[in-house]
């Protein structure tokens, strides 16, 4: 069972990015995500795909992992951070809470959108899809990419260095393999594709 399956995860901000993050997490973990947004329509969309309606206070009070993509700087007050929480405040250039403030308030891990972004996923994911001649990009592709990124992360670090080519090659191979496994690949890839450095 991959890490994270037992964690309660909350998503604050359910626009295009937030809803996609929540959908990916629910697909990968099989668990509902608590979602908060200032508008009701995005919450209804989350509920329609299996999430649970919530608000920012409940997400911060109950969730082990809080992800925020609202574009609202300083939305999360340090007093809202629970000891041991993981906080990913992803809005750029000014996050919902500064990572340093979140750590000082008791978060075990906190990071912002400048460090956590799709640069680690998309070069390799696109390459893997193209190499396999994939007809589509189902959710499982991004789970495979995520697992490759985790496997490429050195011990003691949150993420691997996005400038290391080996990370992107690992993601490409994982995505190509997932494309083959999902029967969406239109090209055969030989063994060398998956083993060469």
Describe the structure.
The chain is of the alpha/beta class and 197 residues long. The chain folds into 2 domains: 9-112, NAD(P)-binding Rossmann-like Domain (Rossmann fold, 3-Layer(aba) Sandwich), CATH 3.40.50; 118-195, no CATH class. The protein has 8 helices and 6 strands. Strands 3-2-1-4-5-6 form a 6-stranded parallel sheet, sandwiched between helices. The longest helix is centred in the C-terminal third of the chain and has 17 residues, at 165-181. The model has no long low-confidence stretch (mean pLDDT 93).
Uncertain spans = none
Q: What's the pLDDT, averaged over the residues? A: 93
CATH class bucket of the largest domain: Alpha Beta
Secondary-structure element pattern, one letter each:
EHEHEHEEHEHHHH
- Radius of gyration from the alpha-carbon trace, in angstroms: 18 Å
Structural class comes to: alpha/beta
Search tags:
42% helix, globular, six-stranded parallel beta sheet, 6 strands, 197 residues, 2 domains, alpha/beta, Rossmann fold
Write the layout of secondary structure elements.
Layout lengths: L8 E4 L3 H14 L4 E3 L3 H9 L3 E2 L2 H7 L2 E4 L17 E4 L9 H6 L4 E4 L9 H11 L6 H13 L13 H17 L9 H5 L2
Parallel strand pairs: 1-2, 1-4, 2-3, 4-5, 5-6
Helix pairs in contact: 5-7, 6-7
Summarize the structure.
By secondary structure, the chain is an alpha/beta fold.
């Amino acid at each position: 069972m991959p890490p994270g399956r037992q964690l309660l995860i909350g998503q604050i901000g359910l626009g295009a990015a937030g809803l996609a993050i929540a959908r990916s997490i629910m697909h990968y973990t099989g668990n509902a995500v608590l979602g908060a947004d200032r508008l009701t329509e995005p919450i209804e969309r989350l509920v329609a795909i299996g999430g649970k309606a919530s608000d920012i206070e409940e997400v911060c009070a109950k969730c082990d992992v809080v992800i925020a993509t609202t574009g609202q700087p300083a939305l999360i007050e340090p007093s809202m951070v629970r000891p041991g929480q993981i906080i990913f405040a992803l809005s750029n250039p000014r996050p919902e809470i500064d990572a340093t403030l979140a750590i000082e308030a008791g978060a075990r891990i906190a990071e912002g959108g400048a460090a956590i972004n799709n640069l680690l996923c998309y070069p390799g994911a696109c390459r893997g899809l193209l190499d396999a001649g994939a007809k589509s990009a189902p959710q499982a592709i991004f789970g495979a990419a995520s697992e490759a990124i985790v496997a490429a992360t050195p011990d003691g670090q949150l993420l691997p260095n996005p400038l290391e080519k080996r990370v992107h090659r690992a993601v490409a191979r994982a995505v190509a393999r997932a494309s083959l496994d999902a029967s969406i690949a239109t090209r055969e890839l030989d063994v060398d594709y998956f083993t060469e450095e």
